[in-house]
């Protein structure tokens, strides 16, 4: 056996050294042209990988949107896009759908699940200092304010529908240093580019977002690049180019995550064609684009949606409906028999486009009247529709707004609703985790966006107040995030009032709390007046507990309620390890309420006067009154 060949390390170094730029490793390049060419190459390769997925997304969009020409001209999808990802949609998707089961199932699922608005709550259980718990509450209120400011729940519902249709929906977050706000926007699935191998475990190292933006908006943001922006091609082609007046340009956002904490290979690049508009180091361990998946795929980055589950059923329904329509037109219409020698013009009878004319000579043909379509075909059509709902776990009763006929009592209706909700337990968990991830990123971005003295808005009981950012700054190790519903009460006014009435009857809430919980718009002003004393009491107690600022009770307050709340708040403050001097202020306030209540109480009524002199005395105590003699 020949001896192994000696390995020359110096030769290896020479062969590894490449003069040409490593275009696929764009985040390591120094020259601008190499970076943008590397990004362009990476996106082109990802597009080639995603040909089948884009065609699949196109089919699913046709199913849900019921085939629309404006959608076919979408610059991202369809034959007018001029992209290699378009393929023929195949049988069953050639026109408008008479029975769109996909849309019905998806809209029902969205109404069942996405109506729930999870509220991320920052919890600091067992904190030795009440300040940590107080900051956790304010951090919860701050994230709630960001959600409200961005209309995030409405945008999340759109991402939820995307997840039902395509399998995955996206929300992008952006810390805007000019407006001093964390902004959120919905992202179309076709804008996201990830390598299939790199993202096989849903943790890609690079991500690209390709979208169209107004040139004027870009110039306003990057005025130094105005010439490059104006001269750039739009990136549109085909009907999308000829049928639009929009002055847009294709923009690419590219992220590469740091290989490890502290590594300097994290990079963010915003580019158009061969021009970089913005380039900066990126040190976050996450992408600022959060994904929600209806169901996880066995492999890969993107999820699996409802359209994928019932695609074949919808196509088969379309084919059966097409067959029924042809049979109805062929058989279930009048047939007019005319003698060949009658000289009747065809347009006199057959011009109504409903009946058709048949000429005969000799004996008049006999007529058979079979059914246009056999009943078994209708039964199969109904079975397919029911099977689509069954496979996805959506109740047809929920889709039509009807309860099952065998369900009568209110308890039975609630049990049926619980069963339907349990079917989507995994989806519900994904939905809550989606909002937890959004909250985590919002807090992390805010740490870079604000300084300790900067004022931020928090949502305190449906009203916005300004507080210094340092009052809600916490280390990640000091809290955990739970997801709670915004309200445990039903959304409908009638059901909400019924539950609040039950609580009031059981004595769990006061009349003022009942009116506040009921939230009836017609008496909102009256409710605000009646609950004013309660809100003032809560505000003062919170100020004493948190800031050590004492407030003296006033006569016009509901002193009884104020005293009761001060006693309860003092007990709770002790369990929360509030400063003793602040607890003393709460107790002082309660005692002052009690003293004032006694001072304002009316004087006791004077004792009743005795009988006048000479009046007959009544019987001694405990003796019956004297009986009148008989006959009187």
Walk me through what this model shows.
The protein is α+β, with helices and mostly antiparallel strands. The longest helix is centred in the middle third of the chain and has 26 residues, at 306-331. The chain has a five-stranded antiparallel β-sheet with strand order 4-5-6-7-8. Strand 10 (335-339), helix 12 and strand 11 form a beta-alpha-beta unit. The protein has helices at 9-16, 32-49, 51-65, 69-72, 101-113, 130-149, 152-166, 215-221, 226-231, 239-242, 306-331, 346-349, 375-392, 396-400, 410-423, 425-449, 493-505, 511-518, 524-530, 532-547, 559-575, 580-600, and strands at 118-123, 168-176, 181-187, 192-193, 206-214, 248-256, 267-272, 275-281, 289-293, 335-339, 356-360, 455-460, 463-468, 480-485. Helix 5 (101-113) packs antiparallel against helix 11.
Can you lay out the helices and strands and say which pair or pack?
Layout: H1 9-16, H2 32-49, H3 51-65, H4 69-72, H5 101-113, E1 118-123, H6 130-149, H7 152-166, E2 168-176, E3 181-187, E4 192-193, E5 206-214, H8 215-221, H9 226-231, H10 239-242, E6 248-256, E7 267-272, E8 275-281, E9 289-293, H11 306-331, E10 335-339, H12 346-349, E11 356-360, H13 375-392, H14 396-400, H15 410-423, H16 425-449, E12 455-460, E13 463-468, E14 480-485, H17 493-505, H18 511-518, H19 524-530, H20 532-547, H21 559-575, H22 580-600
Helix pairs in contact: 5-7, 5-11, 11-13, 17-18, 20-21, 20-22, 21-22
């Amino acid at each position: 056996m020949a001896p192994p060949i000696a390995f020359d390390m110096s030769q290896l170094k020479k062969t590894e050294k490449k003069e040409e730029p490593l275009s696929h490793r764009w985040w390591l390049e120094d020259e601008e042209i190499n970076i943008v060419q590397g990004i362009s190459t990476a996106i082109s390769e990802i597009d080639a990988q995603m040909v089948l997925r884009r065609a699949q997304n196109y089919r699913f969009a046709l199913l849900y949107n019921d085939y629309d020409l404006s959608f076919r001209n979408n610059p991202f999808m369809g034959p007018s896009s001029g992209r290699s990802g378009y393929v023929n949609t195949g049988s069953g998707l050639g026109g408008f759908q008479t029975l769109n089961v996909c849309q019905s199932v998806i809209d029902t699922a969205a109404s069942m699940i996405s109506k729930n608005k999870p509220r991320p709550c920052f919890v600091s259980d067992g904190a030795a200092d009440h300040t940590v718990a107080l900051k956790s509450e304010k951090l919860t209120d701050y994230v709630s304010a960001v959600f409200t400011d961005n209309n995030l729940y409405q945008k999340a519902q759109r991402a939820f529908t995307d997840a039902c249709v395509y399998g995955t929906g996206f929300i992008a977050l952006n810390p805007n240093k000019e407006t001093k706000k964390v902004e959120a926007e919905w992202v179309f699935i076709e804008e996201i580019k990830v390598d299939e191998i790199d993202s096989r475990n849903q943790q890609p190292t690079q991500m690209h977002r390709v979208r169209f933006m107004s040139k004027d908006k870009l110039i306003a943001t990057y005025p130094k690049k105005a010439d490059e922006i104006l001269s750039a091609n739009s990136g549109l082609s085909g009907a999308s180019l000829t049928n639009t007046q929009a002055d847009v340009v294709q923009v690419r956002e590219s992220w590469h995550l740091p290989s490890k904490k502290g590594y300097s290979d994290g990079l963010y690049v915003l580019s158009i064609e061969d021009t970089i508009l913005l380039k900066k180091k990126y040190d976050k361990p996450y992408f600022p684009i959060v994904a929600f998946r209806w169901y996880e795929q066995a492999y890969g980055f993107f999820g699996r949606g409802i359209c994928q589950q019932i695609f074949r059923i919808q196509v088969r329904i379309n084919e059966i409906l097409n067959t029924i329509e042809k049979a109805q037109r062929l058989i279930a219409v009048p047939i007019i028999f005319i003698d060949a020698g009658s000289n009747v013009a065809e347009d006199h009878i057959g011009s109504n486009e409903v009946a058709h004319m048949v000429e005969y000579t000799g004996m008049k043909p006999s007529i058979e009247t079979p059914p246009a379509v056999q009943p078994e075909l209708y039964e199969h059509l109904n079975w397919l529709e029911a099977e689509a709902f069954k496979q996805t776990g959506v109740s047809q009763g929920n889709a039509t707004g009807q309860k099952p006929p065998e369900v009568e009592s209110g308890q039975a209706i609630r049990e049926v609703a619980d069963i339907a909700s349990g079917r989507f337990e995994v989806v519900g968990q994904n939905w809550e985790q989606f909002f937890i991830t959004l909250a985590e990123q919002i807090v992390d971005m805010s740490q870079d966006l604000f300084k300790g003295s900067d004022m931020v808005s928090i949502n305190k009981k449906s009203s916005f107040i300004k507080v210094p950012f340092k009052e809600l700054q916490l280390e990640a190790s000091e809290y955990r995030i739970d997801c709670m519903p915004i309200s445990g009460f039903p959304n409908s006014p009638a059901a909400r009032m019924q539950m609040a009435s039950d609580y009031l009857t059981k004595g769990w809430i006061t009349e003022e709390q009942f009116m506040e919980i009921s939230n009836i718009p017609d008496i909102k002003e009256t409710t605000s007046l009646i609950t004013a004393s309660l809100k003032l009491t809560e505000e003062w107690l919170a100020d004493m507990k948190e800031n050590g600022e004492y407030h003296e009770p006033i006569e016009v307050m509901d002193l009884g309620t104020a005293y009761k709340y001060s006693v309860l708040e003092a007990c709770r403050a002790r369990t929360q390890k509030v400063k003793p001097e602040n607890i003393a202020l709460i107790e002082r306030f309660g005692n002052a309420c009690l003293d004032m209540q006694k001072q304002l109480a009316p004087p006791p009524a004077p004792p009743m006067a005795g009988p006048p002199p000479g009046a007959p005395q009544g019987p001694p105590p405990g003796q019956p009154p004297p009986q009148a003699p008989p006959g009187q």
